[in-house]
């Protein structure tokens, strides 16, 4: 999200619209990119053919994105509204990344 602060043009948007635009970009384009990397590395470790990896990503990419739409808004609310700033990084990693990787593994195995 910090990377998006400098990259995403938000001129002309209201203050409350800027984070929504960045989160929308993060949860669509970047979600597909990171899921592609995840499936490529997982398939490479299993020595799958590139075509098999691509078809696996194609068949589950949108369902992963939808699952991310359900997970990440709650994670952002908990991280930035509830957690004290000095504990955000550790709490954010533990409370969101572990469920995310569990979700990725579940969707990948279906």
Could you outline the blueprint of secondary structure elements for this entry?
Layout: H1 2-7, H2 17-45, H3 50-82, H4 88-109
Helix pairs in contact: 2-3, 3-4
Describe this protein's structure.
The protein has 110 residues and is mainly α. It has one domain. The chain has helices spanning 2-7, 17-45, 50-82, 88-109. The model has no long low-confidence stretch (mean pLDDT 76).
Strand content: under 5%
Give the low-pLDDT segments. Answer: none
Q: How many β-strand runs?
A: 0
Percent helix: over 70%
| Content-based structural category | mainly alpha
Mean pLDDT: 76
Number of domains as seen in the coordinates: 1
Rg, alpha carbons:
16 Å
| Number of helical segments with 4 or more residues | 4
Produce a short descriptive summary.
This protein has 110 residues and is mainly α. It is built from four helices and no strands.
Question: What are its keywords?
Answer:
110 residues; 4 helices; mainly alpha; globular; 0% strand
């Amino acid at each position: 999200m910090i990377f998006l602060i400098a990259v995403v043009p938000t001129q002309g948007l209201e203050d409350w619209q800027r984070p929504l635009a960045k989160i929308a970009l993060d949860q669509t384009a970047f979600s597909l990119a990171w899921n592609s990397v995840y499936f490529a590395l997982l398939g490479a470790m299993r020595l799958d053919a590139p075509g098999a990896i691509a078809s696996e990503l194609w068949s589950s990419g949108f369902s992963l994105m939808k699952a991310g739409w359900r997970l990440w808004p709650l994670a952002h609310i908990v991280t930035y509204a509830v957690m004290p700033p000095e504990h955000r990084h550790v709490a954010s990693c533990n409370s969101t990344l572990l469920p995310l990787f569990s979700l990725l593994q579940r969707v990948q195995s279906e």
